[in-house]
Amino acid sequence: xxxQKLDIDASKMDEEWxxxxxxxxxxxxxxxxLPLDILGHLQSVERKEAxxxxxxxxxxxxxxxxxxxxxxxxxxxxxDKENIAVPMTKSGPRRxxxxxxxxxxxxEPGLKPWVAVLDFKSMYPSIMISQNICxxxxxxxxxxxxxxxxxPEGTARYISFDQRPGLVPHLLSELMEKRDYHKIELKKxxxxxxxxxxxxxxxxxxxxxxxxxxxxxxxxxxxxRFTHPNLGASITEWAxxxxxxxxxxxxxDGYNVVYSDTDSIFVQARVDADSPINKPPxxxxxxxxxxxxxxxxxxxxxxxxxxxxxxxAELEFETALSAFFSHGAKKRYVGRVVWPREEMLIxxxxxxxxxxxxxxxxxxxxxxxxxxxxxxWSAVExxxxxxxxxxxxxxxxxxxxxxxxxxxxxxKDGTVDFHKIYKNPDSLPYVRVxxxxxxxxxxxxxxxxxxxxxTNAKTSPMTVQAWMVDELDVEPPEYDPEFYAKRLATALGxxxxxxxxxxxxxxxxxxxxxxxxx
Length: 518
Prior knowledge:
Blueprint: H1 13-19, H2 21-41, H3 44-55, H4 59-64, H5 67-81, E1 104-105, E2 110-120, H6 123-130, E3 149-150, E4 157-158, H7 167-192, H8 195-219, H9 229-252, E5 256-261, E6 264-268, H10 287-308, E7 315-326, E8 333-339, E9 343-347, H11 358-372, H12 376-391, E10 402-405, E11 409-410, E12 416-417, H13 429-439, E13 449-456, E14 463-466, H14 469-472, H15 481-496, H16 503-508
Antiparallel strand pairs: 1-5, 2-6, 2-7, 3-4, 5-6, 7-8, 8-9, 10-13, 11-12, 13-14
């Protein structure tokens, strides 16, 4: 309660100050304490202090600076020490041809049981170290010595590490050793109950990780002082080559790779076809079968990690899934994690979107639970039922509230200028909703989230009404059932297409039958 906002209208602060200065002071104090409490809870300040310590820079630079400034702090120090000239920051055009990204393995739609997920440990930093990728080792004169490391597609060559270590590979090697050290010390501190030591080493190993993963970003840019167009492209070339090679070798050994995404691969374990994927009660007759399937998946993950790890591509067994599902789209999948923890893993679907609404999120989550339990028919029937409830207006409006943050520029007189931020603000639903709040006398601070209900999607732009039920104690707005039913059918239809039900058929509640369905 002592963290809640007081009844002060920030848009009329001069009037509020004249009328009740004590309350305004308390309002300001609360506004100061709340973000500090949030930062403390998230350990944000401590993380930035750790980053500053690792990058050898000030806390201010670690907090408000750019990644190139963090990396400059280390690279320039080493360049000075090695008597290497430091180029000026590049000031030319920042746009150039896009670098080809990581390799993504095609995924077949459907449910796959018992999958081991393996990740490449610090993939890009490892490649930069093993191939000695750096602006100081890039061969630019056309010479072709045998000691050169040639990128898989032949676009660039680098002097070997034995001949001359590059500045960045040298730094990354040291950082990788530091992270391993802090992780070892973290484990020791946890085992001995040393909370302060545990906290310190956890923050430092995390800071090292952040810094190491920042190198590729600046190398792939066009403005960093120590970069070159070939560097970022070479890194992703080796990454694609490594993961394709490992996928080929894994499949040659008789395993089925069901998916791969940049720095991870999903491999099916060889378990009995009738092994249960849902965890049964421990006193159940099939519990031992479930446990045996889990143990085999763990064995598979550890075996593959040990077998296919090589320099520049160290595999780590990260997760065991009892079930993995995708409707066939890249970077969209769900899984039931059984090791090292038990939870549902969701990637790429609407439950992650900030402008979703409660009913869509809960329905999709329930659908995934059913699918991962191999109950596809129940998932489709449940989806049809929810869509039918919306069309019949049997759903509470509160479950359909869409929310999004709305920006604006605060004028001196306390009003908000939306035109300064948005080109055509009145075409945006969240801007119109913010204006409705202001007209109703409710507070609006630029950047805050506003909620609304779509009342008529047939107009252009669609008609929306701000959600002010709790603040004004008014009746909920009448929602447009067709809009919400279609929005739900679109999101769920992408998934149910894997079972033969598309968006249109979910809306209709029936689908065209063929002779092959019987």
